[in-house]
Amino acid sequence: MAESLGPRLYSCSNCRNRISLHDDIISKCFQGRNGRAFLFSHAMNITTGPKEDRHLLTGLHTVADIYCADCHQVLGWKYERAYEASQKYKEGKFILEKAKIVKEDW
């Protein structure tokens, strides 16, 4: 009989708080402040900072930094608003920086 494995998770690299599911990755082709980043459809166990307009590689966006709910490390940001029509798909999605998360239960 095959062993049943749970969902593959990503956790905070600092405290191992569970942050997102591997199945929620939309794209691995994003750039964060500290290198490579992933776009996720959902995130959990986070807090959100204030909204602010930022000029990113793909134009002007309203974003809010996201923090681990346990250790308060900055993990990335949430796209609140995209001003260009081609970027609207990012609204409500989360950027998690690869350097700030680790694979858990793989």
TrEMBL record:
Q: Tell whether Zinc is among the UniProt keywords.
A: yes
- Provide the Yippee domain boundaries: 8-105
Q: Which domain of life is it from?
A: Eukaryota
Record bears the keyword Metal-binding: yes
Q: Which UniProt keywords apply?
A: Metal-binding, Zinc
Question: From the Swiss-Prot or TrEMBL record, what is one GO molecular function term?
Answer: metal ion binding
Matches recorded under Pfam families: Yippee-Mis18
Family stated for the protein in its record: Belongs to the yippee family.
Q: Indicate what this protein is called per its UniProt record.
A: Protein yippee-like
Q: Which organism is it from?
A: Hibiscus trionum (Flower of an hour)
